[in-house]
């Protein structure tokens, strides 16, 4: 821009075009270009044309003297076209509403040559003795404009975009902290705000908490940025599920599934999105790519409606059903048809809840299992090795995860005698009558023939279904093997 401006104004073939009377007023240029044009004028310097004889002014018979350039070299300019003098700084920083005297040296030009020199020299009066005169203010503006270190735009450019963001963030937290303490009527300062103090007062402590929250937010944004960079231009699909928190706020958990540059299937948790409701219109705003949902009975209609709505607007958002989850839901639905199986799982949940109700009972269960393992090892009835004879605990079953039911059954069979021992201890040494009564009822249930029979029966049946379920959940799928497992499971 600088070179273009100089070429445009001062490197023309006809030097008369530089005549100050023929130049446009600075205020007539676009405001974003005015400072650059002023710099170009200042770099070129005052216009000092010299000719053999200048014309005489009619009233006084005097004319402009080229020797005046030496007396006022930095600001005096002369227009040959109109035989008038101008002031370069005042011309550059002229105001449209300026005084008549200032206007003479900026717009109309000065021609009263008889008033030059002497005690009442018009040029000296224009400069003025007052430090705040119009001319001196214009000259100071020229100096500031050319001094980049003091120019306000240069000062702003010293700060990077990140510096501006950081400073705004600091101010935002200072304002939030101040407003909160002011509204609560709390004291700002503490009695001791030194670095060694444990309590620096309300202001600093609250500011510390807010900053820590912002740090977590920044970390989460960096993690998301890393995930986006890892995906790159690859195709991906969005896996979502309901994630209601303890405050009953409806949230949508988002997981991105994609194939990385090495051909490995990756899944990355991307975040939680709050949704006001789980209607198809609300969910449609968040999902618009490849879509895949489970078939929970309480959500089936809404999911199907969402599938059709998205496919209508985006035909390439293919619908993929979660077959592994569908298998789990099918097993849950079928098990509820058989009364004995349904009752068995209800009793199993009750037993697990009673034994695992406290840390003390869990410790008793693990201690009993450790004694049993030590006894079996002493009899040389157990093999030893890395990863063998681990001490676990009873597993709780989930309503929609059928694989967790199998884990719950397997854990009870593995720790059956230890569970009975813990229940007997509760019956004998329970603190309350209710705990002793619940333990006695649970002991009668698990020692009954019907419960024991269904326990082992369901273990054998569910082991087959669990093998298929694990195969369907593998990240690297073998389609032919999965099809064989489906056929054999049927």
From TrEMBL:
One matching Pfam family: DUF4371
Domain TTF-type: 60-158
Top-rank taxon, per record: Eukaryota
Annotated SUPFAM superfamilies: Ribonuclease H-like (SSF53098)
Family matches, as InterPro entries: AtLOH3-like, DUF4371, RNaseH-like_sf, Znf_TTF
This protein's name: TTF-type domain-containing protein
Organism: Citrus sinensis (Sweet orange)
Species classification: Eukaryota, Viridiplantae, Streptophyta, Embryophyta, Tracheophyta
